[in-house]
Structures are given as structure tokens and as C-alpha cells.
Automatic annotation (TrEMBL):
<dbReference type="InterPro" id="IPR007140">
    <property type="entry name" value="DUF350"/>
</dbReference>
<feature type="transmembrane region" description="Helical">
    <location>
        <begin position="52"/>
        <end position="71"/>
    </location>
</feature>
<dbReference type="Pfam" id="PF03994">
    <property type="entry name" value="DUF350"/>
</dbReference>
<keyword id="KW-1133">Transmembrane helix</keyword>
<feature type="transmembrane region" description="Helical">
    <location>
        <begin position="236"/>
        <end position="259"/>
    </location>
</feature>
<feature type="transmembrane region" description="Helical">
    <location>
        <begin position="152"/>
        <end position="171"/>
    </location>
</feature>
<keyword id="KW-0812">Transmembrane</keyword>
<protein>
    <recommendedName>
        <fullName>DUF350 domain-containing protein</fullName>
    </recommendedName>
</protein>
<feature type="transmembrane region" description="Helical">
    <location>
        <begin position="123"/>
        <end position="146"/>
    </location>
</feature>
<comment type="similarity">
    <text>Belongs to the UPF0719 family.</text>
</comment>
<feature type="transmembrane region" description="Helical">
    <location>
        <begin position="83"/>
        <end position="103"/>
    </location>
</feature>
<keyword id="KW-1003">Cell membrane</keyword>
<dbReference type="GO" id="GO:0005886">
    <property type="term" value="C:plasma membrane"/>
</dbReference>
<feature type="transmembrane region" description="Helical">
    <location>
        <begin position="274"/>
        <end position="295"/>
    </location>
</feature>
<feature type="transmembrane region" description="Helical">
    <location>
        <begin position="12"/>
        <end position="31"/>
    </location>
</feature>
<keyword id="KW-0472">Membrane</keyword>
Length: 297
């Protein structure tokens, strides 16, 4: 049996990563305080704004998840003396995550002001925003794991792949909006987010996270063709597209097997049935994770 000794760990690397993570958390807290009119503690503790707390907790969580995931690469750069590359790895990873959140808020759900709704204690809005934030984090880490960018050419491929997969996110969301409108006499899904239907938020977050896990699986099964952009984009579209189809076909089948006599749409859209929504959340995330284990290389 082997034991891990402190001598096997570069304490300086751990310290640097911890300091960077702490600075990011502190900076993020200051931004959140500004957005909450410098009343972060009041929103969470005095007003009991659960929506704000859920969203803030998710944001802190993705900082920890991202930091832990990219730590091995940052560690290697530091022990090799590539301090600039180590810092760029951290900066680029978080920049992509924030860019994904911006695209989600301003483009994909352009008719729904998530930040304003969260400040009004709308838990549905917090779940929708947190689900997309976590989904974007999984997507960015999938791209990072796929090619481990070491130079400008790799970064360009990563950027193009990120943009293409954001389009996939957008198409998936629009298809969900169309299905919702068809099942609810033309009602708008984005407008229904404002009604604080918690079950709709749970379902939306579950499908978003499930899709991001499926795209992660697609990225891991896709071969990387060096700095050739066209070949890589085609590879990403093919593999991620297959995972997208598999995710929905497997998830809908499993939900039908689990709830054969239940009108899932009616229960979630009109009855605010959190239990049914949680089942949908569990199925989609489980199927996404299953695809990772089945197809990742």
C-alpha cells in the first residue's frame, strides 16, 4: 500500500491555486454585492432570499469545481516554470464560463431577466440560471479536457467549438420552448419563468445539465485533429449531435417506463408538481452521466 506524502506535492503550487481561487471568490463576492446594491448579507440572511442564495451557492460551487478540475494542468505548468501559462489556464477557463452565462442570459433567454427575477426571490429563475451556469461549466471543462490548449491554435479551436456548442444549447432551448407552447396553447416558457413555477425551473435545469453531460461525452469520444478547425468542428458536431439524440431518446423512454400513466407535462406545467420535475431532473442527469461512462475515451 502506498501513501501520499507531503514531499510528493508541490506546496507552492497548491498555495498559488488556493490564492487564485480565493481572489476569484472575493472578486465574485464584491460583484454580487454590487449587483445586490451592496446588501449581499441582507439578501441571504435578513430577507431570506432563497433564490439569491441558491444562485450564489451555485456560483461558488462552480469556482471550486473548475479550480479542482484544472488543478493538474496548472500544477504541471507551475512545476515547469510556465507561470504565465498557468495563469492563462485559469483566466481562460473562467472567462469561457462567464461568456457562456452571458450568452444564456442575453441571447438564449433574451425575453427573461433572470437577475431581476432572482432579486425578487423567484426560485424558478435561480434554478434556470444555476442550471445553465453549471451546464456551461461542464461544457467548458469538457472542451478543456478534450484538447488541453497549449497555444493560440488550440485556443482558436476551443473558441470555435465553444461557440458551436452554444448554438446547440440555443437550439435545444428553443425546441423546448416550442414544445411548451404547443402543449400550453401558445404560452411562452420564458414568461412562465416569471410565475415562479419551481417545477418548471427544476425540469429546465435538469435538461440543461443533462445536455451538457451528453456534450461532454461527445467531446471525449471525438478525435482531436490538431489545429485544423474545420475537421474538429465537424467531429464535434457529429459526436455531440449523436449524444444529443441519445440523451433525449433514452431519457424520454426511461421517464415513460417510470411514469407510464402520468401526464408529465400537465403535472409540471400546471400542477407545479415538484416530485415529477425531480424525476425528470434525475433521469436527464443520469442519462447524461451514463453517456460519459459509455463513450468517453
Amino acid at each position: 500500500m502506498s501513501y501520499l506524502s507531503l514531499l510528493d506535492i508541490n506546496i507552492f503550487a497548491i498555495l498559488v491555486c488556493f490564492v487564485l481561487a480565493s481572489l476569484i471568490v472575493i472578486g465574485h463576492r464584491l460583484i454580487m454585492q454590487y449587483k445586490a446594491k451592496k446588501a449581499l448579507e441582507s439578501e441571504i440572511a435578513k430577507r431570506d432570499n432563497f433564490a439569491f442564495g441558491i444562485n450564489y451557492a451555485c456560483q461558488i460551487g462552480i469556482i471550486a469545481i473548475t479550480g479542482a478540475y484544472i488543478f493538474p494542468d496548472v500544477y504541471e505548468h507551475l512545476i515547469a516554470g510556465h507561470f504565465t501559462l498557468a495563469i492563462l489556464t485559469v483566466v481562460i477557463s473562467f472567462s469561457f464560463i462567464l461568456l457562456g452565462q452571458y450568452i444564456h442570459r442575453k441571447w438564449i433567454l433574451n425575453r427573461f431577466n433572470e437577475e431581476k427575477a432572482i432579486m425578487k426571490q423567484n426560485i424558478c429563475a435561480a434554478l434556470v440560471d444555476s442550471g445553465m451556469l453549471l451546464g456551461n461549466t461542464i461544457l467548458v471543462l469538457g472542451i478543456f479536457h478534450w484538447l488541453h490548449p497549449q497555444g493560440v491554435s488550440d485556443l482558436l479551436v476551443a473558441t470555435m467549438s465553444f461557440i458551436v456548442l452554444q448554438i446547440v444549447f440555443a437550439i435545444d432551448s428553443k425546441l423546448r420552448e416550442m414544445r411548451f407552447a404547443k402543449a400550453n396553447q401558445g404560452a411562452s416558457l420564458q414568461q412562465n419563468f416569471n410565475l415562479a413555477n419551481t417545477s418548471i425551473g427544476i425540469r429546465y435545469a435538469g435538461k440543461t445539465i443533462g445536455l451538457s453531460l451528453a456534450l461532454f461525452a461527445g467531446l471525449q469520444s471525438a478525435p482531436y485533429h490538431g489545429a485544423t478547425i474545420v475537421e474538429n468542428i465537424n467531429s464535434v458536431l457529429l459526436h455531440c449531435g449523436i449524444m444529443w439524440v441519445l440523451l433525449y431518446s433514452m431519457s424520454f423512454s426511461l421517464i415513460h417506463f417510470a411514469l407510464p400513466k402520468v401526464n408529465v407535462g400537465l403535472e409540471v406545467d400546471h400542477q407545479d408538481n415538484i416530485g415529477v420535475a425531480c424525476i425528470e431532473f434525475a433521469v436527464f442527469t443520469a442519462m447524461g452521466y451514463l453517456l460519459i461512462n459509455l463513450f468517453s475515451v
